[in-house]
Amino acid sequence: MNTASPQVSETLHIQTASFQILAEISWVLGKVSQSEVEDFLREIAHADVIVACGAGRVGMAVRGFAMRLGHLGKNAHMLGDATVPSIGKGDLLIVASGSGETQTIFDIVAIAHKNGARVALVTGNIESKMGKLAHAVVHLPAPSKTKQVEGFTSSQPMTTLNEQCLGILFDAMVLMLMGQMKETHDTMWARHSNLE
Is 163 tagged catalytic? Predict the structure, then answer.
């Protein structure tokens, strides 16, 4: 009986795969609008309370952003956490959805909108039903499950590229907010949990 591991016949080198992914991310992020991002950041700056939401792997990127907003001194929460407060006028719901059509997330957007909260959205589909309710929209032109990008195809499976770009976009926004809010590495560390 042969117990040897099966050999992969066509293996990409890790550097080749990594550079291919980085090239795709650069292509997408190179098309993001500075003015849309600035509008999005203004919503954050003026919000009393921020609640963030997203589904699946998108939700993981959103959670990381909500955490950094807390480190910046904002009253920020991730939907689903037990400590999420009510939101209304003066507050902000941050949403990410590649398609802008995910029904469970749209329902949350509609509730926030009805309660008077503002909505800031990152999506690949600005004409989506979420896009129509949002007060600020950043178009992230990565392929989603419902909308492809003309002239561009990702080598990565499913919506991986969208999720990668979203995480980096949010980290870039953090850098921009740090400058605007006069925050530093040290001031942000001071707000990090010390229960670890």
Answer: yes
